[in-house]
């Protein structure tokens, strides 16, 4: 069976990439194919990467407070490109009040500091729809 | 002596320990520090073998300063309580500074937002959503004037956490001081200006490593003549540790970065004793109490030896490592946030027992947001309680001579020296960074730590043990988009009111200096006086030097 393909991206100007790198390795160790985009990716670059890489999942790491700008733009672009079925999750520092807003625009999971990696792996496996429409493993 | 101690420890193990272990096993098969370093059950005088008390530990104020750089410790002067702060507009942050100074803070420390740190104006597409979020936005001299309005720069010391655009922000500070009537020769403070750790850990770089290093040596040369009391670089382990390094890696990479700056300064033709006394350090105060104390003590010793023996510095002030410390942001938990007050207090205590020269204590809400005025004040009070109530500041280096602390200090030193060797063999820190060596080492440690948390080999209270469900949310500082709107308006107004011809001419001069070998500080000062923006000045240099892009490694 095809491995799940995950694009891990670090949008915005922030360079604190510890979380992005740790989760990238954890997902890889959990058997997923992980593409890490590197720093300072615009929503446009992330959407293109998702398309090119045939991603099942996009994971954004945002700590700077710019999520309210980045996430809506990315979701819009994904819709335009017909990538609505890609599972989008965000990890980082997200104020509680912003979480319902992110969920409303289609971000499926928001993971705050202290979340065990296994919980994120399980969430992805339970919620992803692979492009081959195979059941989640 | 060592034989007697040895015998005594062996006797103790046989007569006292073994029966005890037969009755009850220990909590774990092995004990390690938060960095994964194995820790023995007991340290005795035989662990001090190879340590010469008079040479390696010595006395406070004496080479190699293991016990501190001041003969009187904190009995003369307490450490500087310097709280890092900044958010939103310069107007809002100016108010916060006045609150902190009224509350008894003894120095200022400026946190800039990401557009400022990355040399982008608020109207740049990459600044979208970032203006004023992680710190204060400073676009031009006009913002700097507002930021320090009503604060006499000749009377306080200011630390500014700024790296890639350090020269521009520093120039703005100098011009504000000049307009307040404060002579540059009287100014004291710090710019972080540590680009190497940006490439290694925090990743807020703009230009490639070599031109970045050239700006720094230009600042060394400029300050030696014009602003002699200014700390020109704060060589920072803080961010290296936050990125996931161990304590030894933090120590090793930071000190080795320091050696790299010294080498570049010397190679640029500067006299070592002219600029090294103005180099200071910045360490993380993490959670493993004794490991941290050992780290600070080893840092002083390593620096003293490197400056005297490796570089031949003659001035005692070049040998003395001075450092700021900040409690570990990464140790703060979003869960049960009040627990963070206790974490921070213990971390701060380790920094004080390790002889920190200044200290920032984090606020309890910083895993969630920037701190509120109330939590920032509580963090400052934590330091004041340590200083005035705990009694630890009444005696110099109270842990000196502890078998455990001295052995751990030696181990930290040996570990750092091994890393020095590896990096020296690569040709230096710039070369090591270009190969991704420290970056890879840190990523490995970060992942290993996370795994040990997941396996519950390391317990984090409230996160992987003693967990509570249904915690009530706490009130946090929410930064909306009004700061961005306000900064954008001000930028547009500035571009209408300033002499744009003068700005263009000053930027041309800056480009020419960058292309050649002239010191970049004078043209930057001219551009600042003409109200050129941070983004415009950085763009001028981007045109000459290009931008750095790292190869992402996971």
Describe the structure.
Chain A is an alpha/beta fold and 137 residues long. In chain A, α2 crosses α3. Chain A is globular and about 40 Å long. Chain A contains five helices and five strands; from the N terminus they run βαβαβαβαβα. Chain A has one domain: Cobalamin-binding domain (Rossmann fold). The termini of chain A are close together. Chain A is 39% helix and 23% strand. In chain B, α10 runs parallel beside α12 and α12 packs across α16. The model of chain B has no long low-confidence stretch (mean pLDDT 95). Chains A and B meet through α1, β2 and α3 of A and α4 and α18 of B.
**Computed Rg of chain A:** 13 Å
> Which architecture name of chain B does CATH use?
Alpha-Beta Barrel
Characterize the quaternary organization of these chains.
heterodimer
Largest sheet of chain B: 9 strands, parallel
Q: Averaging pLDDT over every residue of chain B, what do you get?
A: 95
Question: Taking all residues together, what is the mean pLDDT of chain A?
Answer: 92
Chain pair sharing the greatest interface: A-B, 38 and 48 residues
Instruction: Please give the alpha-carbon distance between the first and last residues of chain A.
Output: 10 Å
Q: Element order, helices and strands of chain A?
A: EHEHEHEHEH
Please give the domain count of chain B: 1
Shape of chain A: globular
Q: Which structural class fits the helix and strand makeup of chain B?
A: alpha/beta
Radius of gyration of chain B: 24 Å
Class of chain A in CATH?
Answer: Alpha Beta
Helix vs. strand class of chain A: alpha/beta
Low-confidence stretches of chain B: none
Number of strands of chain A: 5
How much of the sequence lies in strands of chain A comes to: 15-25%
Blueprint (SSEs and pairs):
The complex is a heterodimer of chains A (137) and B (554).
Chain A: E1 5-11, H1 18-29, E2 33-41, H2 43-52, E3 57-62, H3 67-80, E4 87-92, H4 99-104, E5 109-111, H5 117-127
Parallel strand pairs in A: 1-2, 1-3, 3-4, 4-5
Helix pairs in contact in A: 2-3
Chain B: H1 2-23, H2 53-57, E1 80-85, H3 90-102, E2 107-111, H4 114-117, H5 141-147, E3 157-161, H6 166-180, E4 188-191, H7 195-202, H8 209-226, E5 230-231, E6 233-236, H9 238-242, H10 247-267, H11 272-275, E7 279-285, H12 289-310, H13 316-319, E8 323-327, H14 339-353, E9 358-360, H15 373-388, H16 403-426, H17 429-434, H18 437-454, H19 482-497, H20 500-515, H21 521-529, H22 534-545
Parallel strand pairs in B: 1-2, 1-9, 2-3, 3-4, 4-5, 6-7, 7-8, 8-9
